[in-house]
Protein 1
Amino acid sequence: IDELIQDGVEGKRIFVRADLNVPLAGTTITDDGRIRAVAPTIAKLAAAGAKVIVASHLGRPKGAPDPQFSLAPAAARLGEILGKQVSFATDTVGDSAKATVAALANGEVTLLENLRFNAGETSKDDAERGAFADALASLADLYVGDGFGAVHRKHASVFDLPARLPHAAGDLIATEVGVLKKLTEDVARPYVVVLGGAKVSDKLGVIDNLLEKADRILIGGGMSYTFLKAKGHEVGISLLQEDQIPVCLEYLARAEKRGVEFVLPVDVLVSADFPDLKTKAAANPELVASDAIPADKEGLDIGPKTRELYASKLADAGTVFWNGPMGVFEHPDYANGTKAVAQALLDCDGFTVVGGGDSAAAVRILGFDENAFGHISTGGGASLEYLEGKTLPGLAALED
Ligand code: 3PG
């Protein structure tokens, strides 16, 4: 954006596609990391005299207004972070957006309502997306793409809109891509990858790619039970993607062939009941070996031996990429696995990257100092797809 600013942006209406998809409890933002991450770009453009129109999605509404996914709380928080009033349009391309944008003075900032309240944003139909992108384009003179968390989505505001306006990448995208690119090049070794989160199917692409690059892959969270099952262990009522077992077996075999250490939990905390995340009432988990999960229980966190094992595998790391929590970290009885991995990253001297909406939020919610990590990405799916080597629509659209 510095080039854009040098060319002069005073009085220009700049559409900034941000990713303000933050976790909410009702209307309270529980982690504002994504808002803070994009705020410098917005501040820089406003300081240069632009009229800044910020837009984002929040959650997955069904292409129509749905109050539980309103971005109004994000407008208030963005205003606090910027230290200036951020006006809010209650629609995306309707009367409210047009009036709010028309009322902007140089250096002022507005936020549009959730882009996904319009079916054209996520449509698979090029014409429908294009029509929505046309309507968005009519609001602005220039486009800045800075919603790194959404660059893997071929959506109207991410992919189609930059083709309609002179465009530039924002500072957040530039930083994110700079860091992730490093992980695809010559990395300091050992290169240790920690993967968690619920679904193994979300991580297969990245495992496929990292099996060629990493020295160690440590698995935790819901996805570990499909690997444990693939190794012949019973997993009770734990999260399981039975149809993914063949590919898990293939990856385990490939890891062995390539000499990549592929490490699974050796013990887990289990319970017959999923914990109450609202009351956080004591869950009294039981500790069992990972090959002895009772038939009526589900695994909800890695156990103490696994915590120690994973810390030891991270201690000498030259580079770490971590995506996905080790357990149900939102409940204190199941947060220790995720905490232990975060602490192990802090304790190692290597370059550490935390990727992912959930693991990034976990680090902050669990009270770690985010600045102590090498880099905390704002992109979950986006950082994984980048490391998979895929072409990301939102980056491709900015490349020219
Ligand atoms: C994310 O949280 O990963 C991004 O904001 C993208 O959201 P989506 O998965 O709903 O497209």
Protein 2
Amino acid sequence: ANRIVVKVGTSSLIHPNGAINLETFDQLAYTLSALNNQGKELILVSSGAMGVGLNKMHLKQRPAEIGAQQALSAIGQSELMTLFTQRFDHYLTDIAQVLLTHDIFDYPKSNKFVMDTFNCLLKDNVVPVVNENDTVATDELDHRTTFGDNDQLSAIVASHMNADLLIVLSDIDGFYDQNPKKFTDAHLISEVSNVADDEFTVAGGSGSRFGTGGMHTKLLAAQRMLAENRQMVLANGKDPQIIFDILAGKPVGTLFS
Ligand code: ADP
């Protein structure tokens, strides 16, 4: 894989107690910088804005109001980028913030602008760090399902940017036959070639306090990738160097192929 989209979830960036997982930030920057130096084209899709915002404002729980959540995301987003900029600087890699909405590729004009932006950044070896633009993402009906759903956004980006591989990093080793946070006898499924009703049935919601989509949105992302003959790997982001193993073809996580 030469063009790779990496999506990192809130659960990998924020500890369960709400503290920021600085080690993940650092190891992600280290790993992506090393790959960037090898000539790979990387796009990072990062969640965590609200988690970082909660941390910054010393809040324990996300507020119920969507507007208050959007405000917290706005606070957290700049802090999130500061954390990434610091760590990527350390490894001499330039990054850029790209804020998108789920439907941005649906309109010919914005589609072209976004693609041109990505292509210029990649040509210059800059790693785009993508997040949903939570302030303007107000798709009324869809709001509760798409707000904060970077799983599907990462698949949309991978699809339009013609990436061969999407790596989704979460707080879990992969896709299980039942929610492993609830059932101790859950088994990891190492390869999935088709995502259908059976898979969605065993996909539960988020297991962490700050996570959002849970397994459901990850399966939707996988479905999109499979439909276009692209690969997706779901793996544990607690050590982002797992990306090296994935690219070396080692059997880690769940491969959707
Ligand atoms: P992230 O913040 O990384 O996007 P989420 O908390 O949204 O993570 O989603 C990951 C969680 O999905 C897991 O921690 C787990 O509790 C839950 N989950 C539900 N069903 C499954 C399943 N079948 N296999 C794996 N994880 C599952």
Protein 3
Amino acid sequence: MVSNPADKVYIFDTTLRDGEQVPGSQLNTLEKIEIARALEELGVDIIEAGFPMSSPGDFKSVVEISKAVRKPVIAALTRAVERDIDIALDALKHAERGRIHTGIGVSPYHIYSKFNSTPDEIVERAVKAVKYTRRFIDDVEFFAEDAGRSENEFLARIVEAVIEAGATVINIPDTTGYCTPYEYGEKIKYLINHVKNIDKAILSAHCHNDLGMATANALAGIVNGVRQVECTVNGIGERAGNTSMEEVVMILKCRKDLPFYTDIETTRIMKTSRLVSNLMRMPVQPNKAIVGRNAFAHSSGIHQDGVLKNRENYEIIDPADVGVSDSSIVLSARSGRAALDHHLRRLGYELSPEALDVAYTKFLVVADEKKTVSDDDLRILAGIDTIEDAR
Ligand code: KIV
Ligand code: ZN
């Protein structure tokens, strides 16, 4: 399949808003600017810079990011409340291109037990907020909070009403990470098939990871028609986090059978991941897809032998594509002769097959004792075990 411009998926990065809601992580304005600049270099289309109404610090960060970062659209979050919208518009006044991201809860939980309201009143508040915002700015995104647990019929009704009121992007959040990919995809399909003028707005997926399905749900959304994904670097965010940006981007890059693309400069992914992890003091789990320490590390003998013969035997992503210099062949008691030979050659020792057998026997003893074997261990092994004599 060949991509056409309609198949571009916009990357809406919310590391600095939803991501920053992660417990224990409070970035100061300078740190946020540093991350925003890195996101700009990474090529994200939209940066959600904060929720200006929530605190003076968040307001200031949105102002400063709007001044410092010129290429991506800068979005500011608001509730469907005029005062919030006024404050957000003020915070965005220096933005080259600003976006108000306003919305309201649409699930029965939100309508009845959060707002103590009715469906009619919720539609009315949503429409009023969007119409009000459109008086001041053209780029208005509406979020239908907890859309994942909402009735499709009501969701379609409110989405149609806010498009009519002037919303240009419609965010369908699975706020509690409840949907399965099939359900989320069907929800998007339902909207496309039932909402009048749906093509006047871009649909956006905003998925949480409570059941580990945030990335799968975002992908189901894309396949069924969303063209913007809201995500965070390293998948950080409330509770179990948000859709991880690097995962969505690399799925679309690596699966050539999917006719979608992003404008992300993927070779900057690892650098940006490290920056966010350090500034937010949130270590990345070693087995995290794409950016974990072990994402390109091979430790079992069978895999190591396969990778050394042809990287693609066990790797679906070229590490260089995400800014990692090379795959690593980790030496442990699970490693085979091929891995040992590879590392000895790297250190300048070329052994005959017989010598390698001798070295391998010694190596296993060291590996059992030390769990992982370092270059220094190998040098000692090569030196004291008279590998030279065995040649
Ligand atoms: O998860 C969510 O519903 C949100 C909205 C505020 C966009 O983060
Ligand atoms: Zn969210």
Protein 4
Amino acid sequence: MKNLDPFKPEDFLILVVDDIRKNLQLLIEILDTSGYGTTFAISGKQALERAKVTEPDLILLDLMMPEMNGLEVCKQLKKNAKTEQIPVIFLTAATETNYLIEAFESGAVDYVTKPFKTPELLARIKTHLDLKRTKDELKKAYEEMKRIAATDELTGIPNRRSIFSLGKQEFERSQRYNSSFSLLIIDVDKFKTINDTYGHDIGDEALKMMVKITLNCLRKVDYIGRLETEEEALAKKGHLGRLGGEEFVVILPHTNLKGAYKAAQRVCEAMTKETLQVEDKTVSITVSIGIATYDSKDQKMEDILKRADLALFAAKENGRNRVAI
Ligand code: GH3
Ligand code: MG
Ligand code: MG
């Protein structure tokens, strides 16, 4: 996780909610003096609207208010996706423990009783803003890690692990609803020669082009992923520092053999029409594709994958640049 920037009050907006104007004025003055940005609401209903529109970083919420009290406001805030993450600090003259407990149960992060000591209130505000920043940063880092773990670095498409998990989901859906499901394995022909002739970097570019062309031939609901893991590719070819393989799997939900054949044919043909221009060199690639369609004997996605792999082998044996079943 990256280090957080120094804490600057002016980076934050605080929504102050109180039905008594005098209280509002006092709080806003305190926050202003400390450098925070402020906005305010004089009723529960207005607070909900302001929170949605201004998306403040923190809310100072009065508990006792006519019509809609603070507890109800807090509960509503926590129900809305746009406002649920905003920390709420209750500010109230009510000192009874049951109020305090209810406040925390409604989703508040803190509870300050009036009359409050200004430095204490400011210290609590700063702590909660800082905690929220850290939490947001962690969440972002987690999302990014999840994305990296699921993506093939070179081409940006799902990697083996994630295409398998997507494929399994689709396969199970097909089993449950007895719908069709097809799978393609695409392998670049004589790719070793491309690397040997033009170098590994241009080989990488050719793989990216191949993915782009394939994606253009597929429907939005189809998935393509890279098949070989780095480890497998290394074990098979003994190359060092390679990023992955030149085999790809395409998942075609709700597609029967005829449809899958058409899609595969489309990919195969499109590949021969595009070239990669590198300085004065023109690089062209062809692919071989193995197809398998779900039949009731298949228990696992791996069963279909095995058949697609056999079909791919046949396509290679029969001269490459072709589709086989
Ligand atoms: P075939 O028509 O039988 O598939 O021949 P091929 O040369 O494509 O087959 P083979 O599987 O023997 O070779 C695959 C080559 O793909 C070898 C490997 O160095 C290369 N390769 C695998 N991953 C990458 C990559 O990420 N980038 C580059 N540039 N090359 C890769
Ligand atoms: Mg190949
Ligand atoms: Mg291969």
